[in-house]
Predict the 3D structure of the following.
Amino acid sequence: QVQLVESGGGLVQAGESLRLTCVASGGAFSINAWAWYRQAPGKEREMVARITSRGMQTTYADSVKDRFTISRDNAPNRAYLQMNSLKPEDTAVYYCNLVLWQATGGTKDYWGQGTQVTVSS
């Protein structure tokens, strides 16, 4: 059973930084990609950043480019989101997403429980 646990959220002032960590457990993984999503009250969940496991290609939402950095360690199975120059509009619940290759073909998504990030002005 794959489990994801996020940590590192909290309350900060605008301009400060936070680092989110996501730890995966529950077996040996064939990882396709890691991603971070966020969901603010009344809004849909949106992808913030994504990194592929093999090529380490990264993708960022326009709203966080040049401020956020996603990274990962395959051993152990962890992903990080370094968030700098935080803005009040970054306030949301942040979710870790892990995409695993399946033995039968295709991929499957797993999600963490979310960690709250609140940025005060």
Q: What stands out?
A: The mean pLDDT is 95. The longest strand covers residues 92-101. The CA atoms of residues 98 and 110 lie 5 Å apart.
